Amino acid sequence: MGWLAMSRASMGAHDTPKTYLDHQCTWEHRDDHGNLLEGRRLLKSVWSGSAYYAAIEAYDAAGTRQFVSALVCKVRWRPGARSGEEFAYKDMGEDMGPCEDGAPRSILELLTSTSHPYALDWRRRCYRRLQLVERKLPEGALIRLAAPLRFTDGTVQSEFRVTREGRRTILVPKDGHGRYRISRLMERPFEIVPEPKALKTLFPA
């Protein structure tokens, strides 16, 4: 599907993309006599600013769960945009193989099993990313990037000492010259370089 764009006023009572999309994820189909045919129920959703992830439960006429699948939406949120298109989104089911693979573990663990190849590939990509972003990166660690990076000062670096400044992670090259920040560091492949520990010398009493 393509992008659906609208003004803030067209969002009705919903003041954020998350509340609007949450509302769209819950619905029921009924026949002319009001009997339930099928429905969808939102279990959990997360909005990161540019992407929305949701776990949605499908149930039948008896209210019995059929499956839980993921919905992914690309989101553009520009309140006050002169064009009037303040909110736009593009929705994709997981079986469409979305490129966005930043679903949190809390969403993925709600999903029921599937055999759809695109959905399975999407879930694998999400879990691979989680393995990266959930790594522990202690202060003082020496890390080595999988591939050297060229920085705006013209230097090319691959090994850094990790330091903290509040919540910011600062990287200092192994030679101690320079200070760098790398966008989306935890999503990049790198290894923590093991370093020999200095042993204490014990003198006999």
What does this structure look like?
By secondary structure, the chain is mostly beta strands. Helix content is 14%, strand content 38%. β3 and β4 (51-60) form a beta hairpin. It is elongated and about 90 Å long. The chain starts with a strand and ends in a 13-residue tail after the last strand. The model has no long low-confidence stretch (mean pLDDT 92).
List the helices and strands and how they pair.
Blueprint: E1 4-6, H1 17-24, E2 27-30, E3 36-47, E4 51-60, E5 65-77, E6 87-93, H2 105-108, H3 117-133, E7 142-150, E8 156-165, E9 168-173, E10 190-192
Antiparallel strand pairs: 1-6, 2-3, 3-4, 4-5, 5-6, 7-8, 7-10, 8-9
Output the keywords.
single chain; 205 residues; mainly beta; 2 domains; six-stranded antiparallel sheet; four-stranded antiparallel sheet; elongated
H/E topology pattern: EHEEEEEHHEEEE
Q: Compute the gyration radius: what is it?
A: 24 Å
Count of separate structural domains: 2
N- to C-terminal distance: 79 Å
Number of strands: 10
Computed structural class: mainly beta
Q: Count of helices? A: 3
Overall average residue pLDDT: 92
Spatial ordering of strands, largest sheet? 1-6-5-4-3-2
Model regions low in confidence, pLDDT < 50 over at least 5 residues? none
| Dominant shape | elongated
**Biggest sheet character:** 6 strands, antiparallel
- What fraction of residues sit in β-strands? 35-45%
